Amino acid sequence: MNRRDFVSKTVSASVITSVASQKKSDDSQTNRKRFEDKVVIITGATSGIGKAAAFAFAKEGAKVGFCGRRENLGQQVQEDIKNQGGEATYIKADVIKADELKIFIDSIVNKYKRLDIAFNNAGTVMFRNLHEIEIEEWDNMFNTNTRGVFLAMKYQIPHMLKTGGGSIVITSSMHQVSTRPGGSAYAASKNALMGIARAAAMDYGEKGIRVNLLAPGITDTPMFRNATGGTPEAIERAKSIIDSLKRIATPEEIAEVALFLASDESRYITGTSILADGGMMAG
Length: 283
Known about the structure:
With 283 residues, this protein is of the alpha/beta class. 52% of the residues lie in helices and 14% in strands.
């Protein structure tokens, strides 16, 4: 073999080895799940959007810690996620109780050693003319929908700061944009979240923490069915006011928006709200 042939074959072998190595690396990246090795905390995940998000995050490789008040439902969600090959831990906690919420968050971080993503989803709903709302009902609305988010973030953010950042997603509502008769307490509690998200985004942006709102439209959850009676007539009425898509969302569809906001795909989005209402506000 002359020198030219030797050099040619050596270079060719080197290129083939490099291409094969790159392909192996690309295949490895392709097979890597979107939230692999990430730790996610979700409040209010025993049903509805939170439950759908817990399954979705776990399917994408995340370790999921979640809370809710209904222990039997929480244990079932945990078991179902594990049966599907995911990792999840349920701890009973009520977001209006600061001590329970802190114990839940700290326990998840102690178990999984970090916190990358928080989906603060727990909430309640009520529609009634303002003068008919009992003071206790108004307080419960804000304690759950607004103060509960404040408490969750208060206990989540220190853990994120220790590891260089994270993503916080808060479930708001289309009622932060346009409400309906009887929505004073609910709309007010959800509008307050925009102020929290914007200020927190500025407070912690340079430290690597993003904060965004997810504002769902009408979604087929147990909360929606309880509020409307869940009759076929109620569902058809809901569909009729969605001018664009003419259907209500599934919890899984809204959960996918939460995953987008939690992921690196939205790394330049913070301090804002994503409206997922099927075009209801377009008209």
